[in-house]
Each structure stands twice: as structure tokens, then as C-alpha cells.
Design goal:
The radius of gyration is 14 Å and the shape is globular. The chain is of the alpha+beta class. Strands 6-5-4-3-2-1-7 form a seven-stranded antiparallel sheet, covered by helices on one side. The relative contact order is 0.22.
Length: 133
């Protein structure tokens, strides 16, 4: 589970200019986040617009679930996500990104091997790191 914390602030670039962004915080376990993590994995286009995501930052309306995904190009549509394990979350997210790339005719290939720390979220980190429920 703690392996997900290593993804915090990572940003990966795809050949076509899209990026994958990761935010992961350890929080006190609760009914909403029994695994003790608050996370947000998202895919963004060249302009920074969020294209899809997996997170548990907020509940899903009319459902007793926090883990959910945002549909590709319909990010306001939330679908409950069954969190099984940290490894499965990573696999499911990358599978969704690969499907999105195929739908758009984009290559699912990383632009370079370097990991870039996402400086845009640095200021938000301090507030989110204090989250406990």
C-alpha cells in the first residue's frame, strides 16, 4: 500500500504531449478511505485539461463510495471504483490511459524515462497532507 506514496507528485509525459499526474497522501483510515490513502491519478491533454481520473478525494453522489473514476472526456461522470489493491489501482489506471490513447489515435508511449515532480501541486500538498478523517 505504501508503494503508492512513491508516486506522489510524479508526472509522466506521453509522446503526443499528454501527461499523467499522481497525488497520494497517507491519511487516517476511515469508512471512506479504509486503506488509509487519499489519491488522485489523472490524465491531462496538452493544454492541461483533465481527460480522465481515478481518485477518492470525494464521495460519489447517491453511492456509499469514495473510490471512483472519472470517465474519459466526461470527467464529471463518476463511476464507483472497487479498490482491491494498490497494484491493481496502478494497472487499472494505466489500462484506462492506454484505452484513451487508442480512442484518440495517440501513442501510448512515454516521451522520456525521467520522472518530473509536478511543481503545480506543490502548494496544495501542505494542505492535503494534513487531511485526516
Amino acid at each position: 500500500m505504501l508503494r503508492l506514496l512513491d508516486y506522489h507528485r510524479r508526472r509522466y509525459w506521453l509522446v503526443g504531449g499528454w501527461s499523467l499526474r499522481f497525488r497520494v497522501f497517507e491519511v487516517e483510515g476511515s469508512n471512506a478511505r479504509p486503506h488509509g490513502l487519499k489519491y488522485s491519478f489523472s490524465l491531462h491533454d496538452v493544454d492541461g485539461t483533465r481527460l480522465l481520473g481515478y481518485d477518492n478525494a470525494h464521495g460519489v453522489a447517491q453511492v456509499q463510495a469514495y473510490d471512483h473514476r472519472h470517465r474519459f472526456r466526461r470527467t464529471r461522470e463518476l463511476v464507483p471504483y472497487r479498490f482491491v489493491s494498490s497494484d491493481q489501482l496502478i494497472v487499472d489506471f494505466f489500462d484506462a490511459v492506454e484505452r484513451a490513447c487508442k480512442l484518440e489515435g495517440m501513442e501510448f508511449e512515454f516521451d522520456h524515462d525521467e520522472v518530473e515532480l509536478d511543481t503545480q501541486i506543490e502548494a496544495e500538498d501542505d494542505d492535503d497532507a494534513k487531511v485526516t478523517e
